[in-house]
Amino acid sequence: MKGSLKIGAVGGIDIKIHFTFIFIVLWAAAQGASDMGGMRGAAFATVSVLLLFVCVTLHELGHSLAARRLGVRVRDITLLPIGGVARLESMPQKPSHELFIAAIGPLVNFVIALGLGLVLLFMMGARLFFNLSYLARLMLGSDSFLSLVVYLVSANLVLGVFNLIPAFPMDGGRMLRAFLAIWTSYPRATRIAARVGQVMAIGLALLAFSPFGNISLVLVALFVFTGASYEDQMVQARAALRELLVRHALPLRPVHAVAPEDTLASVMEMGHYAGQYDFPVVRERILEGILARNDLLEALRQVGGTTRVEQTMRRDFPRVSFDDPLQYAQQLIAQSGLTALPVFDQARFLGLITLEDINRALVDRAWRRR
Ligand code: ZN
Q1: What separation in Å is there between the alpha carbon of 84 and the centre of ligand 1?
Q2: Among 58, 82, 120, 250, which is 20 to 30 Å from 296 by CA?
Q3: Rounded distance between C-alpha atoms, residue 35 and residue 49, angstroms
Q4: Rounded to the nearest whole angstrom, what is the distance from the C-alpha of residue 63 to the centroid of ligand 1?
Q5: CB 67, CB 100: distance < 8 Å
Q6: Domain 247-368 adopts which CATH fold?
Q7: Cα(80) to centroid of ligand 1, in Å?
Q8: What's the pLDDT score for residue 59?
Q9: Phi, psi angle pair for 328, to nearest 5°
Q10: What would the pLDDT profile of 331-348 be if each residue is shown by its tens digit?
Q11: Exposed, middle or buried, 188 (CB in 10 Å: 0-12/13-18/19+)?
């Protein structure tokens, strides 16, 4: 993520903090100074919030290590003011794997709460430990070690329970989807889980305006609602990509070819009239190269319009068959850094496919499904 700084690594997984993280620390320090008084209060609150984020990191590490164990690569963990994000390189394939990876996070929080709870029990004795009003007073009013532990126990319980809410992007949403995916298809499970999440979000928003409510719940509700929609759209689009084939997205317009000895200036001029900026380079009806839009513009900037096509075209390029899944074409475009790929039927060159063509096919399909 942009604006993040690496602060360490655990088991080969980078831990980063986003620069906005500093605001939550400053905010905590200011709160501590005003609630508990002076430097001591500020220092106490700062330590408390930093320890809380250690717990958030452990939660994300739980997801990450579980994912890695199941063969899913983990990019890094980034800490933001709203919590942590572990970035997985792919989605777990089996529903049971997703269920396991999602469940580990809240479980880590419950284990921490249990461990610290035992410390409290040991320090205070059973009589005070079960005295809820005493615990509440400890948490609110003082800056002792005991109150710090009480704060961390309750914060971990809240984190664990909050993440179990069955709504994306919370872990509970992923668990619900994985659970449903045991019986039905992954896109359908996602659709149902997303709808459940959206209903929960609306419920949260209504709760915000009730006598027990807090206006910040509206923000949480918005976060949950958009998170659920986003997850649903992403999964449906990916499913569509798998179902659609390259020939479904291949444009019907004729593709203009250029010759290896053409100049870039003449190609540019032709492209301007034809509305085409990716070109197959053909000599005697054989495809010799690809002059993609990004390469064309780069070459025009660097060496100018008198350069010949054969000096800048790519001779080495991936090709797709018109019966390949669209998802494969999209992946190849992303990997090759080309803006267009040649499509073949056996040895016959059919035309070029671009990201726009793929997106258009997806939109068309979504439109027809309405
Ligand atoms: Zn989580």
Answers
A1: 8
A2: 250
A3: 15
A4: 7
A5: no
A6: CBS-domain (3.10.580)
A7: 13
A8: 94
A9: -65, -45
A10: 888 888 888 899 998 888
A11: middle
